[in-house]
Amino acid sequence: MRQRLFDGSFLSVIYPSLKDCRHDTNAVALRVVEYSLGEPGVDDTTYRPLTTILDPTVLSATELAGLYVERWGIESALDELKTHQCSARAVLRSKMPEGVLQEAYGYFCVHHAIRWPMHSVALGADADLDRISCTRTLRVARRTTASHPGFSPQVLDDVQDQAASKLLVELLGPWRHLTNARVVTCTMSTYGVTHLEHRNPRPPPNRTPRDLIT
What we know:
By secondary structure, this protein is an alpha+beta fold. The protein has 2 domains: 3-68 and 176-212, no CATH class; 73-169, no CATH class. Helix content is 44%, strand content 8%.
């Protein structure tokens, strides 16, 4: 710990290698936030997310802790990209490194193009982006490109309005408040080992993670 800040977080450093640590070279300045979820005495697990945003007035400790619980959203994005957009049987066709990189960028650009209308629709309707279905958006985009291979800007606006209404017809259910023990089945780990009580975890919390942060 280098310095404790007013919001409870503190400044620290990490090193790229053990040699750098010994000689105190190439240090990377970081800010550490320590927090726990749940009632005191019930769950004593401490979380310590790190950030390079050193100014707490830009991102407070509470805001960072609230955003950190969203980290598993990347798993949903990978599922959208690998399973729904490309299908499980899709393989990169190129046999050269440059071609593989080009195809990968192409997949990412398409995924961004699918995500952008979801973001726009959610903002316009003041809805939670997590409740806009990516697979529904993908189907709407495929139907639109097949039925309107070429269109004027005016027709494009109408198509966007129609697509937005289709995406808002059936929203996904709100995210459930889930909890899971931080244990593993493998003994070669710093986490606790899975026991019988972990197979039937306690009932899920009735409050959001943001409300449980201490």
